[in-house]
Amino acid sequence: MDKNKLKELACAAISANKQDIIQFGEVRKACPELGYAEHKTADAIKQKLEYLAVEDITQVALTGVKGWMRGKNNNAAVMVLGEMDAVISPAHPFADKTTGAAHACGHAAQLAVLAGCAQGIGAIATHLDGDVCFVAAPAEEFVQIEERQALRKAGRIAALGGKQQMIIEGAFDDVDMAMMVHALADAPEPTVITGGTSLGFIGKDIRFKGKEAHAGTAPWQGVNALNAASLAIQAIHALRETFQDEDMIRVHPIITKGGDIVNTVPADVRMSCFVRGLTFESVTEVNTRVNRAIKCCAEALGATAEIEDIPGYVPLEHNPDMDKLFAANAKKAAPGICVKDGIIFGGSTDMGDVSWLIPSIHPRLSGFFGALHRGDFDVADPELAYILPAKLLAMTVIDLLADGAGEALEIKNTYPRRTKEDYINTMGFLL
User: Fold this and answer.
1) At what angle do helices 3-16 and 18-29 cross, to 10 degrees?
2) 3-class secondary structure for 207-269?
3) What does each C-alpha distance from 312 to 42, 275, 277 come to in angstroms?
């Protein structure tokens, strides 16, 4: 059976189950969970994949879910991913009242797309010359650093990002390439963006140590760690004019603990921070200067600063050949849709780490309103947010794995994978 017929059958299966796919996304949206705690989400996606005849389902990266649909041959293997976790956005109408978690980044939609793609591939899998791996990946949002550091120190994880953890565990060892989609916010016209990159970053966990004293009767006996942190933030601001525009440097600290009680000079102040940029080199260079500013500001006030640099995410490397297939399918499945290429995503994603390892794509699609990570973010058009991306992923899988999996093998040979060991050494994980 030729590729076009396979695509027709896969898309027809997705269209026939349209309401179930949309409903799955809407239910997941109303049940947000934070990274490495997506237990209800994991149960739901596992049940869904089992219902869709996905086999060999296993747990990965603490709360992630991985399963397979096998082709008639196993010439190559393609992974399709969706992300499970929410971000903290207490103002969002669907936010969890206890944790503040909300799907203000479109991950609930990704899970519906994952299920929709599995629905389509299930209709034609026996005609493919390769296998399809479906993964619900945890903990993409790099938040709750202290909690995740505690998980790492307890030996439950080695990396704070879910796909980083999957790489370390070997969850990508048996696949040749990977793909997923991401929400494109504030796009008034139907749009698909392929190519481009995202920012890489280093995470920072900072503790300012001072000396307690009564804040009213004898403040001169203390050393104010909050003042040291505030001065460090101002020093970082003073560095901004030295950042080169082409590096797209972003440094954004927050104070996560400002002291213990108002009547005591703060002696224990905590800060989290990202240093982002387009390249490893620029991020590393700026990070050195940021660390110097933090330590010198603490010393100037008689305090100390303990800085732990944490491996963040790698800048995204889109595979150009896979992007071309995806873009061509978008134009075919949705004539008139605006397809753009090469636009930089100013955020960061652990799909960048996957793309460092194996050929990968991470296209963005419209169908949402509001801005990412904001309280007004939501699905605007279920067809664009849930159904079209499921069809495009399924169609691209067919391009790769039909006809002897020739496209997949060509990409695999042209863009050889890097090793897990090289990744771990490059990122400096403390295993």
Assistant:
1) 60
2) EEECECCECCCCHHHCECHHHHHHHHHHHHHHHHHHCCHHHCCEEEEEEEECCCCCCECCCEE
3) 24, 9, 11
pLDDT tens-digit map of 266-284? 999 999 999 999 998 999 9
How far apart CA 223 and CA 213 sit, in angstroms, is 8
CATH 3.30.70.360 intervals, the chain: 200-311
pLDDT of 188 = 74
Percent of the chain with pLDDT over 90: 95
Q: Which two tokens stand for residue 314?
A: 């790698």
Which structure tokens are listed for 209? 């140590």
First-to-final CA distance of the chain: 48
Helices (H), 2-62: 3-16, 18-29, 39-51
What contacts 281, CB < 8 A, 6 or more positions away? Answer: none
Q: Is the pTM of this model over 0.70?
A: yes
What are the residue ranges of CATH 3.40.630.10 in the chain? 3-195+317-427
> 3-195+317-427: CATH homologous superfamily?
Zn peptidases (3.40.630.10)
Which CATH number is associated with domain 200-311? Answer: 3.30.70.360
